[in-house]
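3.2 Worked example (two chains)
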Amino acid sequence: MTAINAQMVKELRERTGAGMLDCQAALRETSGDMEAAVDWLRKKGIAKAAKKASRVAAEGLVLAVAQGTKGAVVEVNAETDFVAKNPDFRRFVETLAQHVLATGLTDLEALKASPFPGGAVSVQDTLTNLVATIGENMSLRRAQVLSVPQGTVAAYVHMNGKIGVLTAIQTASAEPKVAETARNIAMHVAAANPQFLDSSAVNPEVLAREKAVFADQAKASGKPEAIIAKMVDGRVAKFYEEVCLIEQPFIMDTDRRVKEVVAAAAPDAKLTGFARFQLGEGIEKQVTDFAAEVAAAANA
């Protein structure tokens, strides 16, 4: 019998996309015969994961969870929105979110290599096995953690997993209103989609570009330089109101800005950060007709 070594397992994983333990089992069952091991995995349906890995996965599920002063949000993608309703897939994402919350792991490679809770295999191997079971390409896309030394982190999930939000408020107050405010602001973030926390977080290059546009527009009015300067300042303030969370009118009370809502929660309350994941944002989706999808499924 041929001795099974790490290089053989690595080669089989690269050829099939199967998990490490599955590759080890296949090589043991076939006495180290690489081609037979590939066939063994194919017969088990495990090697299908490699074939599916080239497909675009822009659907799936976003989940945000929080406990006390810490929160986590993750995005796991799949090919179709049907998978988001699959109990096994949802269970994987829920467990993964709690895993990120507990460990603080957000580096994808480190997260994928970490032991999946309740099992003997890694996060990536667990996902690979899920691909083989469900029959669609899936990928762990991103994860983020927010925390505060004192205060609260709130989580909000919108549209059944299409958008996930975290908001962090730092305060020494134990006022219940703080937690309610953090959650309400998370709902605001889901709807308003701010790009920055405050004006200090705006990329200087972005701001310079906006100011140049505003200046050109103002000069076209033919106004005196002093008036033009005031016009540019006014448009910059409006720009901040559109893109900075704390400057935005609060969706539940548009007479107040978000920073005023935070201040009303507790005397020392400070909104220190937010995270917003929208499912599939930035992924170029493939467009196929229904007949093509049925044919593709039949040939999978």
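3.2.1 Second chain
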Amino acid sequence: MRPSVLVSSSRMPFAVQEIRKLGETGHRVYAADTFATAPGNHSRHVRKALLTPAPVDDPIAYVDAVADLIAEHQIDRLLPTFEEGFYLARYRDRLPIDADLFCAEFDTLARLHDKLSFTRMCSELGVRVAPWELATSRVELDAATRHFTDGFFARPAFSRGGIDLFTDRGPLAGAVCLGDCSPTTANPWLVQPFLQGEDRCSFAIAQHGRLVAHVAYVHPRTIDHAGGIVFESITDAEIVEVCRRVVEATGYHGQLAFDFIRGADGLITIECNPRATAGVAMMSAVELAAALADELVEVPLVIPSGRRCKISSAVVREMVRDWRGIPAMSLALLRGGEDLYGTLDDPMPALFQLLSYVHVLRYRVMRPEGPKRSKLMAAYLYDLRWNGEPLA
């Protein structure tokens, strides 16, 4: 019998994918999030949808609630998909002793999530990264940006999804200004030269320091020139090798992802996200279940090029905002590949993707002191993220 699985942060599109694929392969699947309209909670593959406190507001209450759910529903495996994994890993000893948390140790997660420590690690491992400078104040940030005369990009050591990207080049130039940036000693900013080239990403599953499955991909369409909304698998042996080195060096266990730039002079590693990403959507249900099964493999599964998926509602949103691009690109993108949220036999997550916008509205009501127009992604993720705050 397949183990029962609790997939947390079920609002995420890749969580929906994991719920669906695990359900299709015979697992008993439970889904959990902090609000009832989280899309994954409404997949037909979910035995029961569960609600938890927000980990950002009370980490201990969150982990204890998850522990109670595991015990009540006799769940075998806990599969975090976003940054709630940091809280679960830090307080792992509060979970039932026989529960399998598919997640690396907290210190490993933190080292990879922190863009400064990850960049330093890459240098030690012989993985190519861009030069960098560190800023712990707005004055230092301003000075550091002036050192890169051909353009710069800067972001906090703890950040996600291109939300706080400060740059003077490309489509995001000016989207964030110096006055929006607040570097501190606890969360400094990395400043690097602006890199020309193709954005490439990877998603991997590792078992106790062994790379077992990997997909490299590009995103030919993005939302707000940041997070991808259309994804297509590619082959890139150098990306696989970077992932293997990091997994083996850290003894990594769980899901992780990387961002790269491939330019005219080669591949440069940008950052690591020690969690799931949309790359999982390009794995079949059988491939995902096998990668999670902790079976000894001689060589990792590498997904071939040409698989495509998308977030249809986001493609439509971008079409409305940029109607001139409809004939040239967007309609073709809508026709190809599976939607991350909804399928013909499991349509409800797509509907609840729209209904889950109430979570964004709640954020804006609860935090009236914040920006009047909080970015969509930041508002959607506010109660899950971990920005390096001390966890006692």
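3.3 Remarks
The domain at 1-103+344-392 is CATH 3.40.50.20 (Rossmann fold).
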